[in-house]
Amino acid sequence: MDRRYFLATSGIALAAASSLTWAGDKQGTTSSERGKRPKPTPTPITTKSRVIVIGGGMAGATIAKYLRLWGDGIAVTLIERNPTYTSNIMSSMVLTGQRTLSSLTYRYDTLLSAYGVQVFNDDVLEIDTVGVRVKLASGTILSADRIVLAPGIDFDDVPGLGTSDRMPHAWKAGPQTTLLAQQLASMTDGGTVVLTVPKVPYRCPPGPYERACLIGDWLKLKKPKSKLMVLDANPAIVTEADNFTKAFALHGITYVPNAEVTQVDPVSSTMSLSTTMGSFNANVVNMIPRQKAGKLVAIAGLNNSPDGRFAVVNQLTYASTVAPRIHVIGDASATAQPKAGHIANQEAKVCADAIIRSLANLQPDPAPVTNSACYSTITMSQASWLTAVYQYNPATAAMAAVAAGSGASVGWSAENFKEMNTWFTALMADSFA
Ligand SMILES: Cc1cc2nc3c(=O)[nH]c(=O)nc-3n(C[C@H](O)[C@H](O)[C@H](O)COP(=O)(O)OP(=O)(O)OC[C@H]3O[C@@H](n4cnc5c(N)ncnc54)[C@H](O)[C@@H]3O)c2cc1C
Question: Which atom of ligand 1 is closest in space to residue 344's alpha carbon?
């Protein structure tokens, strides 16, 4: 499909979104007028079409790039609070010393130099979902025709943890990953490590189990008298159960299902966790709390899933069901697709296409398909794989797994481990380069 057929201009539109006062000003766009036109033929996108993307992670970086690639009349502003992005994918290997965080760090330069995305290093504090504007920590206010919200996840508070950093989640790669790596390295041989798995839905379904496998393999090598225990708030291993069950037996990992953490004590020299399956002591605790959409989603009133944790979206366009010009993609949205970087990349492309069509007064693609591949490190040098394909089901108005396209490896291999690196490099290049 030629996505450029509706473009009126070929010049690069790098105009900054206008700075306005927050209250009482008028909107600078005509998208709502365009939206009301009954004419079904493509309407040229003008250089005045603007999209603001909030969050430069897997979803946000990808959509910023593809909005520029496929709809080059659109001015795209990406707002990200951190100057660089650190990939969560592969970050568990920092714990075993196989990766450094710097090897997982991505810059935003190419989005600007190759695609013309304007990047703001700032924190979005508020969204005006009707006026389609954002307020930044710097005080700047930006307006657009559409906003794409891709803020990832935030965590529930853990009772008893307070502000202690003794039980890192390391579930957003960064300082917590370094801290957990240091704690594991300095633990005396013979100590106990506990890793907790939160209730679904959480970011990266196989992630906690693959991390447990890596740590288990590493402990066997470095601290063979130590123990590893997985406390799972879910009734069973949530994905790739065959492979992980076998791997836990291989590494001597104790697995406790239905163990939801109710209270922790991070203060005593031996830390403790109270759970629905009893109390446990540990020397190192990787406490992965329950998750919800990045807090901006709730601040904007878009957290309308039944449990109030994520944003319900039209799954053809990723527009919020309560704010049609605000789109929510990646881990923050509520769909049956897993909260995964590969899926975030795919949702970004479906959403970019839908926004470009919408700005041209066209209907979205009625039959989007997404896919996800995932490799799990079962040992420090071998991996398993999991793949899934999702297709829009008009009867349920939702993306649903296609059985024929989904599956998992039987066992694990060094070959898969090699392919995992190839897959990762390609995914990150598609998102950031
Ligand atoms: C240990 C681990 C292993 C994983 N392994 C895999 C894997 O093998 N395969 C896979 O597909 N997925 C994997 N994932 C999941 C993957 O990392 C996430 O699903 C993916 O990052 C989600 O993308 P996102 O864009 O929604 O969120 P993120 O990538 O987290 O990006 C969100 C961005 O928004 C920014 N932001 C948030 N709020 C604001 C604000 N108010 N203002 C400005 N910026 C803001 C944040 O700084 C961040 O950069 C793994 C995750 C973990 C933790």
Answer: 23
Ligand 1 atom closest to 172 (CA): 53
Q: What is the whole-number distance in angstroms between the Cα of residue 304 and the centre of ligand 1? A: 21
Q: Cα(39) to centroid of ligand 1, in Å?
A: 39
Residues with CB under 6 A from ligand 1: 54-60, 79-82, 85, 88-89, 91-92, 123-124, 150-152, 171, 203-204, 207, 294, 296, 330-332, 339-342, 344, 374
pLDDT digits (tens, 9 = 90+) for 8-32: 222 222 222 222 233 333 222 223 3
Show which of 317, 340, 365 is a domain's final residue: 365
Please check whether residues 146 and 163 belong to one and the same domain: no
Phi, then psi, of 79 in degrees rounded to 5: -115, 120
Q: Provide the pLDDT confidence category of residue 46 given band limits of 50, 70 and 90.
A: low
In a domain, residue 305? The reply is yes
Please report, for the domain that includes residue 148, its CATH number.
Answer: 3.50.50.60
139: phi > 0 → left, psi -120 to 50 → alpha, else beta; which?
left
**Tens of pLDDT along 92-142?**
999 999 999 999 999 999 999 999 999 999 999 999 999 999 999 999 999
Position 340 in a domain = yes
Check: CB of residue 403 under 8 Å from CB of residue 377: no
Mean pLDDT of the chain: 90
Question: Domain limits at 230?
Answer: 157-289
Rounded to 5 degrees, φ, ψ at 109 are -55, -45
Q: Nearest to residue 297, comparing CAs of 159, 180, 124, 140?
A: 124
**Quick check: is 264 in a domain?**
yes
Are 203 and 54 members of one domain?
Answer: no
Q: Is the pLDDT of residue 179 over 50?
A: yes
Residue type, position 158, single letter:
V
Beta strands at 333-334 and 369-377: parallel, antiparallel or unpaired: unpaired
pLDDT tens digit sequence for 61-103: 999 999 999 997 899 999 999 999 999 999 999 999 999 999 9
| Cα gap 348→368, rounded to integer Å | 12
pTM of the model: 0.91
